[in-house]
Design brief:
The chain is globular. The strands form three sheets. It has a nine-stranded mixed sheet with strand order 4-3-2-1-5-6-7-13-10, sandwiched between helices. The longest helix has 24 residues. With 478 residues, it is α/β, with parallel strands linked by helices. The protein contains 17 helices and 13 strands. The chain is 35% helix and 13% strand.
């Protein structure tokens, strides 16, 4: 069987990096990663991009180290066989203010690693690979970028916006051969779908880490650590358009605390609602109302076409497999499990072990500071994003259980519920008529067989208790 071709749309914080490492550590017959499309999310888009470049930098060092150890198999076979593109997406959502989870992931997305461990950070010259401004007019900069690209052996930088690269790959490959693994806000996907819905519908499946169905949301203010630490506390949620100060603090309290929404969905609820509407037999029944044009557009520049409705007739419905926090939070990597696996590698001077230890130790400390009754080796990191990669690697495994055709909708404008996944849990019969419009007694068109979204949702995996250890074995080739 040919490998499953995937695009990974990501906002690299800690678990995103683990997901990318797992994807690149697969065998060539399992996955082929065509594109890493970078979006804002856990932190701002430039820090997300830096973390992706750091990932390739340390994988490259790890491969050299493994070769020096005389290993016959140095791992990362998928990555060494197919060099993925890396493209950068927008730095803000389609609508609303930018939300970041830097209180948990650190202001650089990896627990502050670029400040605390500067020797583990690649030279800042990597920015020239993605910077399109002034390149053609500056021969020195152009030469520098060309020279750097020769030494970028594991990925191919793209100067096109991420959503355009997504559409290009879908056009150039046969329909239903590429899956998109979306483990950040869905802004890139929504922009691609808006620009060319029919090309976007060539995708085989969109695997989304997002949403909360029966689980409380995970967008909340951090609890203060129980013990005062010497290091500076992580910053709270930020609105990057607002400078630090009392106004920003008030905005954080007012706009960014919710008991109902999961982070990726809340970060761009409008984008999520637009993407999920494509699963409907009639997308206009769940499409959110048009958003106002962004205020930050430069003078004379028109807004992108994401404000437009989809065409009335589309060739097919989008296939979405949702991995909400209800299932992802049950897949854990404990500090004790990680220490046991990583200790001999640290002793042997593995570059990848040193890098992951730098940001995971900080993350375990953060998790410990937010919990009352868990400490030491029992502290665990939830593997939200890596679970989606594992599904793509092993979807044929009978241990995966997914519900089908659930009408899951995203609230985009509620005063208290923005970003919430709304599901009709009533036991009422579906309407027998074939009308699409609302009827008396059916506000929201929930009972129509021709309205609403149709999504799959993961409710069980082949190994809740074993996935953390399996992931480490694959990444570190143990």
């Amino acid at each position: 069987m040919p490998p499953r071709k995937i695009i990974i749309d990501t906002d690299p914080g800690v678990d995103d990096i683990l997901a990318l490492l797992l994807a690149f550590a697969t065998l060539p017959e399992e996955l082929e990663v065509l594109l890493v499309s970078v979006t804002y999310g856990n932190i701002d888009v430039q820090n997300c991009l830096r973390n992706v470049v750091s990932l390739f930098y340390h994988i490259e060092k790890e491969i050299v180290w493994r070769e020096s150890q005389g290993r016959s198999n140095v791992g990362f076979e998928t990555l060494r066989k197919t060099k993925p593109l890396v493209a950068v997406g927008p730095d803000h959502p389609l609508k609303d203010d930018t939300l970041m989870a830097d209180y948990f992931h650190g202001k650089d997305g990896l627990g502050g690693i670029h400040e605390t461990h500067p020797h583990l950070t690649p030279d800042e010259a990597w920015r020239e690979l993605f910077d399109t401004k002034g390149k053609d007019d500056d021969p020195v900069m152009a030469t520098m970028a060309d020279e750097m690209q020769k030494h970028t052996s594991l990925f191919e930088p793209s100067k096109q916006p991420a959503y355009k690269e997504i559409l290009r790959l879908l056009r150039e490959n046969d329909p239903d051969t590429i899956s998109i693994v979306a483990i950040g806000p869905l802004t890139n996907l929504a922009m691609a779908a808006a620009e060319d819905p029919e090309t976007f519908l060539r995708v085989k499946e969109v695997v989304v880490m997002g949403g909360a169905i029966d689980h409380p949301g995970n967008v909340s203010s951090p609890a203060p650590p129980p013990v005062k630490r010497d290091d500076a506390p992580e910053p709270p949620y930020r609105l990057i358009k607002q400078a630090p100060g009392p106004i920003r603090d008030l905005l954080n309290i007012r706009n960014q605390i919710t008991p109902l929404a999961e982070f990726n969905t809340f970060a761009d609820a409008y984008a999520a609602a637009r993407v999920y509407a494509l699963t409907s037999p009639n997308p206009h029944t769940t499409l959110p109302p048009p958003a106002p044009a962004p205020q930050h557009l430069p003078e004379g520049e028109t807004p992108p076409p994401y404000l437009a409705p989809y065409p009335e007739k589309l060739s097919k419905q989008l296939k979405v497999a949702l991995f909400p926090v209800d299932i992802t939070e049950r897949h854990l990597l404990t500090r004790g499990e990680y220490r046991k696996a990583i200790s001999p590698l640290l002793t042997a001077k593995s570059p990848l072990a040193e890098w992951t230890e730098a940001f995971l130790s900080s993350t375990f400390n953060k998790v410990e500071s937010l919990q009352r009754d868990v400490s030491g080796d029992a502290v665990a990191l939830q593997l939200h994003d890596p679970l989606c990669i594992w599904y793509c690697m092993s979807a044929a495994d009978s241990g995966w259980e997914l519900t089908q055709d659930e009408d899951i909708r995203v609230e985009v404008s509620g005063q208290w519920t923005r970003g919430m996944c709304v599901v009709d849990k009533r036991t009422r019969k579906k309407r027998e008529d074939k009308d699409i419009g609302e009827k008396a007694g059916d506000s929201g068109n929930w009972l129509s067989t021709r309205a609403g979204n149709r999504m799959a949702r993961c409710v069980a995996s082949p190994g809740e208790k074993t996935f953390g250890g399996y992931m480490l074995k694959r990444i570190f080739d143990q």
